[in-house]
Design brief:
binds magnesium ion, 7 helices, alpha/beta, 9 strands, seven-stranded mixed beta sheet, Spore Coat Polysaccharide Biosynthesis Protein SpsA, Chain A, binds guanosine-5'-triphosphate, 212 residues, two-stranded antiparallel ribbon
């Protein structure tokens, strides 16, 4: 198979997923919780901005607080019902994206790699894949996919609309229908906790202590 042209990061829009219920954090709006004094979504925005051409936030509550960060903010459309899960955020991102590619990043994983996008874009172009999905080494030594870190072409919207309209809600069940490259972030020098996500306040505080 022919290898694609290199995928320039300016062609990628990053969407910060902050639209969840945050139930394990007591129902708070997770993206607005402070991480070392900075709201998680803003921290994510600062880490992601240098890596992509465009950026937006997907949130479903406190929209004006998110708008104060200075990038477009889009809530989920009502089509899947309230809080349908991360794929609702993927749909919102794909619908609002004005570049050929979309990268999804959750708001609760503040130490994600500074070279996330470059490595995912390289792998996607090299393998001529429909999706690139990040993966990290777990404590048990297994490589585990992090499907919420997902790079795709905007032409995937039609497939996602079909999948979700049929009741599908799991990211990996959807990406498995297409050609997906898994991108491991386990090189020497990669942050071991790069994909740790804060689902509870205790986890958030543990991560604050780990920031270099
Ligand atoms: N747009 C949108 N994003 C969601 C939804 N549910 C989860 N997410 C996002 O998906 C990512 C992973 O979510 P989780 O950490 O599993 O879920 P959460 O809703 O934030 O928290 P819990 O309710 O504790 O599971 C986060 O970035 C969430 O903001 C949703 O219904 N809509
Ligand atoms: Mg989470």
């Amino acid at each position: 198979m022919e290898t694609r042209e290199p995928l320039h990061t300016e062609a990628i829009t990053g969407v910060i997923l902050a639209g969840g219920r945050g139930s394990r954090m007591g129902g708070v709006d997770k993206g607005l919780q402070n991480f070392n004094g900075v709201p998680l979504a803003l921290h994510t925005l600062m880490r992601l901005s240098p890596q992509v051409g465009q950026i937006m936030i997907n949130a479903n509550r406190n929209l004006s607080a998110y708008e104060s960060f200075g990038v477009p903010v889009w809530p989920d459309s009502a089509s899947l019902g309230e809080y349908a899960g991360p794929l609702a955020g993927f749909i919102t991102g794909l619908e609002r994206c004005e570049t050929p590619y979309l990268l999804t990043v959750p708001c609760d994983t503040p130490l994600f790699p500074a070279d996330l996008v470059a490595r995912m874009a390289d792998a996607m172009a090299r393998e001529n894949a429909d999706f690139a999905v990040a993966a990290a080494r777990e404590e048990d030594g297994q490589l585990r996919a992090q499907p919420v870190f997902c790079l795709m072409g905007v032409n995937m919207l039609e497939s996602l609309a079909r999948f979700t309209q049929a009741g599908g809600r799991k990211i990996d069940a959807w990406t498995a229908q297409h050609n997906t490259v898994i991108v491991p972030f386990d090189r020497p020098g990669d942050e071991v906790h790069g994909f740790f996500n804060a689902n509870t306040l205790a986890e958030l505080h543990q991560l604050e202590a780990r920031q270099p």
